Amino acid sequence: IYYNEYKSYLSKTQMYCILPFLLSTLSLSLSQQSFDDNAPLTELKNGRVGGFVAIKCGFSDVDWFKFMDGDYVNLKSLRNRRISIIRDGRMYISRLRDSDAGVYLCRKNETPIKKITVKIAEKPSVVIQPGDVTVQPGSLVHLPCEGDGIPHPTISWRIGRIQLSDLPVLPASSSMEDILGYKGDNYVMTEAGHLYIRNITVQHGGLYICEVTNEGGTAYATSNILVLDPPEITTKPADTDALDARTIGFACRATGSPTPTIKWRIETDEGLVIEDVEDHPSGRYQVDRYQSIRISMPVPSDSGRYTCIASNTGGSVNATGILRVLVTPEFRIPPKDSWVPVGSSAVFVCAAQGSPTPLIEWFKDDAYLAFSNTYQIQHETSLHEVQEKLIFRQISFQDTGFYECRASNLAGTNRHEFSIAVTEAMPFPGDRFVKDAIEYANNFVQSAIQETQVILSSRFSNPNFQPTPQDLFHMVRQPTRQTLYMAMSAEVFEHALDYIHQQIEKLNATSLERNQQPLTSLLSPAALEHLEDLSGCKARVKMPKCQMRCQLMSFRSHDGTCNNEKNPLYGSSLHSLNRFLPALYENKYNTPRGWSHHLPSARLVSQRLMRTDGFQLHSRYSVLMMHFGQFLDHDLIQTVSGPSETTFAPFLPVRCRRTCSNTMPCFPIEIATNDTRIESSCMPFVRSAATCGTGDTSVFGDSIRVREQLNQVTSFLDGSGIYGSADEEMETLRDRSAGRGQLRVGEETSPGKHLLPREDVLVPEELESERRCIGRSAINFHDCFLAGDRRSTEQPGLTVLHTVFMRHHNQIAYKLSEVNPQWNDDRVYEEARKIVGAQLQHIAYNEYLPKVLGVEGMMKIGEYMGYESETDSSILNEFATAAFRFGHTLIPPTLFRRGENYEEFELGDMPLHNSFFTPYRIVDEGGIDPIIRGMLTQNLKNPDGKLSSSVTERLFNIISEVSLDLAAINIQRGRDHAIPTYNDMRQVCGMRRALNFHDLQSEITNATVRQLLSEMYDTVDDIDLWVGGLEESTVDGSLVGPTFRCIIAEQFKRTRNGDRFWYEADSHFTSEQLRQIRKTTLAKILCENADNITKVPEDVFKYNPNVNKYTECRKLPRFDFSAFMDCGGPDFLRYQSHLYDRTPNPHSQSSDFASSSGATVSPSGGNGVTESPSGGNGVTVSPSSRSGVSPTPNGSGGDAQFDPIPKNTSVEHDIEVLNNHLQSMYSQITSLNAKSEYLKEQISQLEVRLGIEAICSDGNMRYYEGEKWNTDECTECQCQQGEITCGTDTSCGMLEMPGH
Fold it and tell me: What is the reported pLDDT for 1260?
């Protein structure tokens, strides 16, 4: 007690010393005798439970008593720690209780001084409570509320947080007539606390709170008043025509009380009725937070009646809008050029589909085909499709000519031209076999594919099944559906040609060599064209119509098409790889090196030259270099196997894994009899799929093209590994439910952090083998993860990076939607994708590549000088198949994992050969953080030309199965792709051509390696490019030798310069946005998207074993999203309106959608988006021109037409109207900027007051404590304790490294 009172004056030691003395002086006996309590002074003290009272006696050294059980008791004897008695006579009672109430007496020397009565306030209670009320407008509402307590409480009312003050108070005895007759406000309160609301309206509805208050506290009672108001639809869905739109929608707004719920009912023209779109399984119908309905990727079957139903307890109303999805006619079956013998019959089929159903017309030599006795036309039609047959019963020479089938509807017209040649005879021996050949090839290819799928499905569906290395390798190289169709078409064409060869050989009883007799002598041009059409190859090789895709002016397509407007297929997915040097095939056009001529076995080269069990660690770099390199590689390259693994042997088909003969598409790797591990005579190998129009399918043109391999992903560094390389993949990956541009996520691992979703949402059950992921134990079964690249589950480090960038996109999208709430789902998604792609490019060229290529290598890439439309950024085959596979030498045999403080992880590290396709390593073993910490603390393997035995002897290791050899596969793949030899490539890269193995000593400095090469290869000209390039000594502190440095630098130079959407290209980002992009580091991205990592190396690619020197994540540069705030200026008009418009038309109360007021959405038709609120006038926005804004009287062209502009006005009047609009927009922007600066200043002051962090400002930008930035190439500034300090590098400018 004394210590509590005097602790500010005495130390603890002093108190301990005097405490025994104080205790000895206390009187511990009760005073039982009566004494005079007639004190001259009396006082009343009020307190509340939990509070305290302070009582003064007026004299020092007094005794205090409390009247208890009929007598006064000395308080000292109670030893109550809550009671403190001070020498000056004061008494304190803390933490008051009900039992502290009573009479207290202070006495000095037996004389009563003062008597004090202490009363403890009783917390009030509500004894009469109001209830919830539902009423009609105009009623009288009575809310009773009474309370009890000591002292008696007072009563007040509020609605939510709004206090009802100055209420008129009537006597408690007031009658109902008094209350109704009182003149004044709607609210009246009685003295008892009852609240009356007279003539209640909808505005009076809400939560009413009765507050009963006294000194003991406050009690509450609530009443929810619901004033019924039947719903009324204020914004009705408008009839809409949609032309080639990605997203279309109807808006519906309703008022009422309670707030109406809105549901949508769909009745399509095809008779389908959807009662509640939110329960529809397709997922294409989305109802956003504004209760508007969106239809993604609308198709003709979506046409119909869209009814908005608004309901509440007061009733239900509805309104309907009509949707017509307009689709320009497309030919499903176009008529084909034909050679027809005179006098025979011929049928030409033309089938087209579109919406509305097209009308077909026939023309010959530009003249309409009128009625004739020589032919007849049969007509069949169904919803959205029409088919007509032009039938010649007995064709004559007069029927020769050029014909046209023309299909038309409201959306447009499509034409298909074909020719009919009537001849005397059939001079080409193969023509008669075309139909049978296609039928045979189709059956064979489809059955081969089905056989492969059935076998894999049956194996994977067995819960006890352990996959073979070949099974897992098949998963890695599995083609997507689009790739499968393209590769299948090429195989059908090739099989059909072989069938025709065989039939002609049988007919002539002689052997026919394909490369000796041209196909054009066996098949007529018409038959070849027919074969091309029936196989599907012609349909696969189509040039996209970029002029019809206006959205590509602002954002890149997912498949990479139209990035280059002159050559739309440059860099696109499903396009053939490019080449540095001409292909090196044995037969000059499609058989690989080593097919029939001797080359050393790829397995032999791997074993003797490239395998190592021990290795050296790189002193400067972390293993994250290897993982990020693989992530980067998968963003740029994916070649795939053919659609089947069955040999091209029509009468004896054999699976590639069961044959050791070179029979298409099998190209097995020979195994020596003395191999140290593999006892079989070969290792299975399936050739990469060819693109249509190359190799055996190259007869379409006048010259034969060599076989070329296709790249399944885009060649641009665009984040395709995150977002996919096709619109179909993109739609599968997106989560449109929240309307914030998010990607789909899987399990949550920490608040707001999720794993990747699973592939079971993508792959149907019949293709089960494409998605099942099994490690070494069936107990740990999980579906593969789903990302933009199907290889995301290949190994845990790769999965981690896919997870990080998925989270990073969602974080970026969320922030963008916060600063731009007017953006819709598609706009947020595309803008976030644009930023993430730019950051990926910046990291690759500024953090990763300088370490791979060194200073000289970056100088070969050179400074960025702007977009070059003549540059083909397609991936070089030499880069994909040889040079960039240098990363395989960096793979360690073990992947580290570390705990929360970078200590040893409790589950240990992961052997690489046991970690392929094992999602459970992340799902069940601690998430992604242990693997990220392991990447940061593990050395990179030194690039010494050797591969770890984990990938040469145990790739996809499975118990009791023969594992694959990555080095041997790489060598064989180079031969399959006809990659030029090492000697050819080194000569192109500026080195002297070697005449013998000794001439390699300047680049391959290891004499033992040169000796082994001479023992395995017959001549120096036979050395495979991948082998020779890896064995070169690294140069200039890089990770590669001169040949690979040459190829890699050339590829990344093309990738950058040939990308119209490169992040540093003109007008792609503003200067301030670009400054934010350039602040990006992989360290910051890892920090923000890990589950719980708080410090990392500032450069995560550099190896730093000292964890204490890691940088705290909060001190890394922060990304300022205010630079990406869209103020709706003129530049905004360049964007595609239907993707972005959430702002209601200023002339109408409707809609988040351009279509809500009768819009025609035409992103690819060039006519833009027309909003017609009431009188047909509106805003027409067409993104087809980037040259600014120009008004057009008829609303059909230009970038923007501001209404109303009469058709017959003068140009001066048009300009005046436009200027008025622009001045208005400028005033609004100026006002918004002023408000923004004011808010920034207020936020800055608030943060300083709260002591969050020191903030610096240079007048334009705000920086946080510790943040660094560059004002130019030589000056670096930093925010320190609220002040900006800058320093200049005196050596800057002496040697500039390109790419920085």
Answer: 58
